[in-house]
Amino acid sequence: MGAVKVRAKKHLGQHFLKDKRIAAAIVDALRADGCDTVIEVGPGMGVLTQYLAERKFPSLRVVEIDTESVAFLRENVSGIDEIIEGDFLVLDLGPLGGRIAVIGNFPYNISSQIFFMVLENRDRVTEVVCMLQKEVAERICSAPGSRVYGILSVLLRAWYDIEYLFTVNENVFSPPPKVKSAVIRLTRNERERLDCDEDLFVSVVKRCFNQRRKMIRNPLRMMIRADAGDMPYLSMRAEQLSVEQYVELTGWVSANR
């Protein structure tokens, strides 16, 4: 592998990784079992990309919105099958074909939006390995009952097994962020569909967490009939319910609209 120059550069809220040992560890965490395509989101100057190229995946694509980074990748990093210049959040994954694994050092300011896009493409995205703000990583990996358990915790757990892999200190980035980072892995579970209206499930989860300090009966009041009966979860708070309980709650809401 030839040396890849790393230039200090920040755009779109992204801090670039300069420690190649961490980069190699992130790439090693990607299993990509049975995947047809690996997509790196926001490769920047190719610190992860150089290690991905060594893995010889069936297809390696990178998505980068910054034109200067795109030019640098084309000139300095080999082994990429396609460089897609544009915004991953509006990328149509359909033409890419087959099963997809996603990897990247996600920009702090759009990491949640990336996960919502993953959810929209859950039938194709089989794995995600990413580095992101430690606070967001802890929220995603949290279990019911945790004070940081939230909307993404529930929605992602419905479709993925989630692992917190390791913490990354600030000094391995240029420029250094003010917070620690973490690397997590999402692996698509075997669930093909939820045993409820899936669009309604998302609405119920979002409504409950938008008023997380209140008992669930309050945010759901506008979704159900005035004469709807009672059920045990209505006296609980949003962070207390598991995915399975939210599925059950959604079924009850559907029957009492």
Would you mind describing this structure in some detail?
With 257 residues, the protein is α/β, with parallel strands linked by helices. The protein folds into two domains: 16-188, Vaccinia Virus protein VP39 (Rossmann fold, 3-Layer(aba) Sandwich); 198-255, Helicase, Ruva Protein, domain 3 (Orthogonal Bundle), CATH 1.10.8. Helix content is 32%, strand content 19%. The chain is built from nine helices and nine strands. The protein has helices at residues 20-28, 49-54, 67-76, 111-120, 134-141, 151-159, 198-210, 217-220, 243-255; strands at 16-17, 37-41, 60-64, 82-85, 100-105, 125-133, 160-168, 173-174, 181-188. The strands form two sheets. A seven-stranded mixed beta sheet has the order 4-3-2-5-6-9-7, with helices on both faces. Helix 3 links the parallel strand 3 (60-64) and strand 4 (82-85). Helix 4 (111-120) packs parallel to helix 6 (151-159) and helix 7 packs across helix 9. The longest helix is centred in the last third of the chain and has 13 residues, at 198-210. It is elongated, with a radius of gyration of 20 Å. Mean pLDDT is 92; it is low at 1-12.
Strand and helix map with partners:
Elements lengths: L15 E2 L2 H9 L8 E5 L7 H6 L5 E5 L2 H10 L5 E4 L14 E6 L5 H10 L4 E9 H8 L9 H9 E9 L4 E2 L6 E8 L9 H13 L6 H4 L22 H13 L2
Parallel strand pairs: 2-3, 2-5, 3-4, 5-6
Antiparallel strand pairs: 1-8, 6-9, 7-9
Helix pairs in contact: 4-6, 7-9
Q: Which tags fit this structure?
A:
two-stranded antiparallel sheet, elongated, 9 helices, disordered N terminus, alpha/beta, 257 residues, 7-stranded mixed β-sheet, 2 domains, Helicase, Ruva Protein, domain 3, Rossmann fold
